[in-house]
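Handout, page 2. Input:
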Amino acid sequence: MGIPGSLTRTARTFAATLHPNGYHGSYQGGRGFFEGWYVKLVSADRSHRIALIPGIFLSGPGATAPDEAFVQVLDGSTGESWYESFPVTDFLADAREFNVAVGRNRFGVGGIDVDLDGPRLAGRVGFTSPLDPWPVTLTEPGVMGRYAWVPVMECYHGLVSFGHDLAGTLTLAGRELNFDGGRGYLEKDWGRAFPQAYIWMQTNHFSRPDVSLSASIARIPWGRASFAGFIVGLRMGDDLHRFATYTGARVTSLQAADATITWRMKARSGMELRLRAERRRGGLLHAPIRTQMHKRVEETLDARVHVELVNASGDVIFADTGEAAGLEVHGDVAQLG
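Output:
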């Protein structure tokens, strides 16, 4: 007697939840689905800043948009971006680890090999130190904490590496971009669609090389209602300071102006995190809605994030500014306050 399909899918979902860095599309059962890995590369002198996003979009029943694999590119130095579409048959990915192929392009734990048209981009950049993922445990399998186990979330998130060293060269439109001694960052998203409103910021270019920040807040559908959920991780050496909805932290203020994002939050312990991000020029990336991949979202790799960590006694225990920061602000962010 065979194992019922529902039990097989449950088992595969359980296994995939414990491996957030891997591919989650193989057990979706024909539903609309997307998955993309955000690969950020910054050169040692920060003059070259590139983001590549390999991924897949499966439109699901009743949709008119075609299924497609893709690779997106954002040149953070110029703000230029482009999107290359591929047949889904050109997409391969491992369910247990970061290992993705889209056409001739390879992305994995050891680095990336790219060969893209558009403004011609080709070359190899290796990851020369181990990836540093958000810890995965049975109760909190990654950055989403216990929400990773909720089967009806619109969008799931994974943090593959807070930071790792780079070596190698890419050629972009005839320009040679050297990443020897640079720093990388890796995260990913999967599910049915991006949130209708969100703010995301990330930087691992502080004066201390062992510091990295990843912060996001979004409007999360929850049945017929919704709530503003947030996840923030400040990695400082071996310490990870978590501020998230599921940890009991709360947002004390959030203001989005034309040029700045000011965000303060407080943990149950009384520790406070203060963020002020400065917007700069960006490029347009594609993001998924339920029927197609082509919603346009502005992103920059040229932002600056001022960070202060304050203990319960009011003492500032960390204050620094992260450069070469990624920043996205999308939708009606008044819903997030």
